[in-house]
């Protein structure tokens, strides 16, 4: 294990003890399960209304899945600011992060305090999923092991104790960081923590200014701040999003992923999943920092 991996593991252990666009070189183009984050803070017991709303959301996601039997579909959510349960609907296969990983990448640069002007690259990487801007952010962190470790540090700050970011290119033609394999539950925990992390306001504000051509899925929900990622894999075309969705008494962290045949099919299914969230978000358990 490299020094970086040992350091990341130590940081993850310390946290546990405390109370793509696609990187594709082309143009930027139900079963319900619950998992619980490890924390010394006891998880809040869901309110009966919230639990009922989650059952309704589960039915809605299952209906989408039945309509698309050829696709792998999953959606997860948690209250912003919470370190308790992550509710998962569908079948959350561990998939490539694609450009959703640009969120912790941007945060890592902001937190690096290198004295440079990173604002333009952060804006382009998050609002237009610009790959050149994201690569510039990666280079600012030193590339390789230094950059991967810096991004992992932000993931650990966001209570993701497992995800590792490749230091070098693993698939020719794609960025190293975009090939991170990001579990949906870990991505949801990070997203729930994101607005509460120091330095995150520039990131979350940019996530509210995504360009029109990328406002599918969670982007169809008024007031949502989100980031998508998409690209082809040997097992199928992957579309992912993470986002912060306004509720009636706080905000929800929502993540979704679809693996199907094409970008168009994936984003259309993401739109259907977002409609399910929009329908039930008013009664789902929400939170604040």
TrEMBL record:
It comes from the Bacteria. Residues 22-55 are annotated as: Disordered. InterPro entries: Beta-lactam/transpept-like (IPR012338). Residues 22-52 have a biased composition (Low complexity). Residues 1-22 form the signal peptide. Keywords: Signal. This is Beta-lactamase enzyme family protein. It comes from Janibacter indicus.
């Amino acid at each position: 294990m490299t020094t970086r991996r040992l350091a990341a593991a130590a940081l993850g252990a310390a946290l546990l003890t405390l109370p793509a666009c696609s990187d594709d070189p082309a143009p930027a183009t139900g079963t319900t399960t619950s998992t619980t984050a490890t924390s010394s803070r006891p998880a809040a017991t869901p309110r009966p209304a919230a639990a009922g709303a989650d059952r309704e959301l589960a039915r809605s996601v299952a209906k989408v899945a039945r309509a698309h039997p050829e696709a792998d579909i999953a959606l997860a959510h948690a209250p912003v600011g919470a370190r308790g349960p992550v509710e998962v609907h569908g079948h959350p296969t561990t998939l490539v992060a694609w450009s959703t990983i640009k969120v912790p990448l941007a945060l890592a640069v902001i937190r690096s305090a290198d004295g440079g002007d990173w604002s333009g690259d952060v804006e382009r990487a998050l609002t237009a999923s610009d790959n050149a801007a994201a690569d510039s952010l990666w280079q600012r962190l030193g590339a390789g092991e230094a950059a991967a470790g810096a991004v992992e540090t932000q993931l650990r700050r966001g209570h993701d104790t497992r995800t590792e970011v490749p230091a070098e290119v693993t698939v020719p033609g794609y960025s190293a960081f975009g090939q991170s394999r990001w579990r949906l539950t870990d991505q949801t925990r990070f997203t729930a923590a994101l607005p509460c992390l120091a330095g995150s306001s520039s990131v979350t504000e940019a996530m509210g200014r995504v360009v029109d051509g990328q406002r599918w899925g969670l982007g169809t929900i008024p007031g949502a701040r989100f980031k998508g990622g998409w690209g082809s894999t040997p097992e199928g075309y992957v579309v992912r999003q993470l986002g912060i969705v306004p509720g009636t008494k706080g905000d929800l962290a929502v993540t979704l992923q679809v693996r199907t045949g094409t970008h168009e099919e994936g984003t259309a299914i993401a739109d259907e999943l977002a409609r399910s969230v929009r329908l039930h978000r008013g009664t789902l358990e929400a939170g604040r920092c």
